[in-house]
Amino acid sequence: MLKRILRIFAWITGIFLLIFGLTFALLYFRQDQIRELVFASLNENLETEIQVKEAGISLRKFPKAAIRLQAVHTAGSRDLSDTLFYAGDLFVEFRIWDMFDSEIPISSISLENGQLNLVKNGALNNWSIFKEGSGDSQAAVKLESIKLKNIRYHYQDEELSLRGFISDLLAAGRFGGSDWNLDFQIQSQAESFKSGKEHYLQNPIIVDGAFSLKGSEEFELVAQQLQLATIDNLQASFNTGSPSLFKLEHQALDLQQIKNIYAVLNLEWPENLDLQGKAAIKAQFIIRENTDLRTELFTQVEDLTIKSGEFHFKDLEAQLEYYRQGAFDRLEIRDLKSHSDQVQIRGTIRQLLKPQLNLNINIDEDQDFWAGLLPEEWQMKSGHCKVDLNIDGSFPDWQSLGGIALARAKIDGSMDWENLEMEIGDNFAFESKLGRGSFLKQNLQIDTLLIKHGNSDLSLKGRLIRPLRFISDSLSTLGAEASIVSQYFDLQDFLSEGNSSEDDSLSLDWKKRLDLRTRVQLHEFKFRNFNAKELKGQVFINRRAISGEGISLLADEGRYQGKFVLRTPEDSSFHFQAELKASNVLVASVFKSFDNFSQETITADNLEGRLSLEAKIEAPISPDLQLDPNGLEVLSEMQIDQGHLRNYEPLQALSRFAEVDELKDVSFNTLKNTITIANGEIRIPDMAIASNVLNLNLSGTHNFENEIEYIITMRLGDVLFAKRDKTSGNKEFEEHLSVSKRDDDHRIPIRIGGTVDDPQIGIDGEAMGSSVKESLRKQGEEIKGLFKKKEEKKEKDTGLKFEWDEG
């Protein structure tokens, strides 16, 4: 059985070899005749000649026979004599049994290792090399296939130039005349592309796919399945004519690929712009004579994410149109919104590399969304914000959307927020329960702004000048013209910690970026120990100064009025100036409010009374708000009514000197004087003090080192008899007192020097006239004589001691 099978196989193989041998021999012996028949078939349909270096029979295309033409050159049509193609090898294929006919029909043509040049100039082209018959169907040549392998190609017309390499192409159909109809598969690379003056394709890109080609002098090329660079599943078409039109479609394009296409086409992608998502895209490229390539793109995008600098949008849907011609482009945003419709953007962006925006932006989102848009130093902890803005402006790049260039744009619209909690940098945080405003150009008109910061609350209404620039640019200034109302305002809530070692030192760094003009009404005001009510006036704050005009407030059970300016140069100490009027305030309360003015010599425990004054004040102040007493200058007109001075050390020393115990608590109805402070020294002009103990005149100086130089002038009778023994029965002593009381014009100048803690008291001899000295001396001797006469009857010490300076 096996031998029979082998014999059958041997017979079949032998027959096959015999047929093959006979066929090959027949082809060999008839090759000249066959070659002439093939050339006759070609020339019958061609308007141009084919130049061949060598031709022969080939079985490389078996089971078909073929004429192999080597070094083949074909000129273009008579319209354009440019070379149409050159091939190292051209195979004209036919069926083997057709060689027995008088005519040999061509079934396939293969070009290998060559160059293909397609040229079009207006209505003329170089590929119309097939003869025209009486009809299109007669003029067309029907082939089973056309094959290209390792062919470089170049297409060129008045505006378009395309170069590339075909590694493999298989086409089938009918071509020639005006009725081309070919279907083909291609594997190729596009290496350069030029439209007008613009050059594209920085690197070669893959162009693979299945195409159909129809037409003749004007034809349509359709790709059913195209891979372009890294993008596959494209549909494309190309129509020649005026204009020529190239179309591309993709049902679910990864937007990351668009950036790759820009790179491949040698186009500049906007810096810092990142797109993610899937898009259904329709694109068309329009080629007209003497104009730049026009690109039109229509897309519907799902799950879109946009990142550009500080801006980050995600989970968006978009309907977009993009147009580009030459150096000009435009993006039309027909609809760009979030899935929840809480973000909606519409408008136009021109020049994507240097964007010119004309957009309407409507956003109604919570903290999570806004946190991605705000600068790093602005932290939105909670809250809800809604904006409806129209932005019209030009920017040097996309990064500038969050920078200074934003300040140059025209911005109109409205803004609402609630339950907002913000932190700005390391030193400032606030809460805003409710707010509403509207943008006009770059300014924000605040209709309602309720802020909670620390223990303070603010209600602001007015205009913020360029707030977006303030947010986006750390060097810019926020201007404001507003009225501020507060139920409770603690100034320390708005002052940052300074560098001083003292716990309560404060800094004004927060105001460097402000230029505020405000009218304030603070129902309760607090700063350290100072508490006030109904503070009203105008306050101006900028980088150089803080000032107030028309300030009035109730504090210390009285009223204050005045104005002030605190100049804050960056290269030197601050300088404070003020004009102050106080009416009927409690002196002790004033000292408590201002922490006894940072001294312990005379405190709230020493003073009582009602103070009224008018004062002009100047003083240098350190950047942490510490006053320099040596530079303090004050000119004040003051009046104290219903006053008490208790346990004041200099008066207690005088009490010990004059042995008048009542000086421990001196009360007076009215005290008036002009007090000046300069060069670290308080100067008190001569003033009369009528007290419950005695009447005196006071003048002198008191410096901030607590060194004192007082001159107190008292009546002699007050010193001698204020504590006399009212029950004494000494008639002679009573008569002397009567005489002394009548002669009460003599006064004693007492000098109190040294320091507050260690006062030195004595009579100032230089201030006493010589007659007064003599009178005092005589009266002293008389008094001593009287005491000597009655010494043996003395029952108790009078307690009188008297000193004077002989000068």
Describe this structure in words.
The protein is of the alpha+beta class and 807 residues long. It contains ten helices and 42 strands. The protein is rod-shaped, with a radius of gyration of 54 Å. 22% of the residues are buried.
Write the layout of secondary structure elements.
Blueprint: H1 2-45, E1 50-51, E2 54-58, E3 65-75, E4 83-94, E5 108-121, E6 124-125, H2 136-139, E7 141-156, E8 160-175, E9 180-195, E10 198-200, E11 205-215, E12 219-228, E13 231-239, E14 244-254, H3 256-264, E15 273-287, E16 294-308, E17 311-325, E18 328-338, E19 343-350, E20 356-366, H4 367-371, E21 378-394, E22 410-424, E23 428-440, E24 443-453, E25 456-465, H5 467-472, E26 478-486, E27 489-490, E28 496-497, E29 506-507, E30 514-527, E31 530-541, E32 545-555, E33 558-567, E34 574-586, H6 587-593, E35 607-621, E36 633-646, H7 649-658, E37 665-678, E38 681-690, E39 695-703, E40 708-715, H8 716-721, H9 731-742, E41 747-754, E42 759-763, H10 770-789
- In which range does the helix fraction lie? 10-25%
Mean pLDDT: 77
Cα gyration radius (Å): 54 Å
- Please, how many helices? 10
Keyword list:
two-stranded antiparallel sheet; alpha+beta; rod-shaped; 40-stranded mixed beta sheet; 807 residues; 42 strands; single chain; disordered C terminus; 15% helix
